[in-house]
Amino acid sequence: MMVPKASLPLLFSTPISKGMDLALEPTSERQVFKLVLLGSTDVGKSSLVLRYIRDDFRETVSTTGCAFFSQRVYLQGKSLDFEIWDTAGQERYHSVCHLYYRGASAALLVYDISSKETFTRAQLWLQELQKYVLSGEMVIALVGNKSDLQDDRKVSAEDAKAFAEQKRLLFMETSAKTGHGVKEVFQAIASELLTLEQQKEDKRHRRDSHITLGETHGPGVRQRCCDFQ
Fold first, then answer.
1. Does the model's pTM come out above 0.90?
2. 67-77 pLDDT, tens digit each
């Protein structure tokens, strides 16, 4: 997977945090996927990662530029290494964030269910992603965080789900504070990534089979489907 070049600003250099394995079963088949979290400041992107990686929660987690984490997931007899890039939501970092989600296999568009503005901002992040990612080349999930703030809800689950279905995104509500839905959203992304990779492999297999079939006939040889002697 693509890793940002060393020429990027030093303010994006952060320590690496190695995640804990989610299963004990070893596997020899391993795939690496880059995930990026995008969204406004204070929607809880860093808290989501912290809950997922360490099953921990902090009320305030500040990200300057971009932070990197890794996590290993075992699913369907395969080992997936997640390289998770948690981008800062501040507007002053927006112009360079695209350097981090280029080459990503999945993206989490995170908003705060108690803030309509962050939901609108997540939609703008989707438009930004579509400038750099071909349709069907990335798994994208719309994540409504802070589901524990039901009394302060400003974005209905129905509206968010409708938007996600329209744009063909995964959708789930989570709470980094309680842990609700956090593991599930990453597991859903892992499952979709495996499905996407299988589709790509099937497509390559069909293309290679077609090329091989065509090469069995020499140039200028005319083929007829129905010859009777």
1. no
2. 788 899 998 88
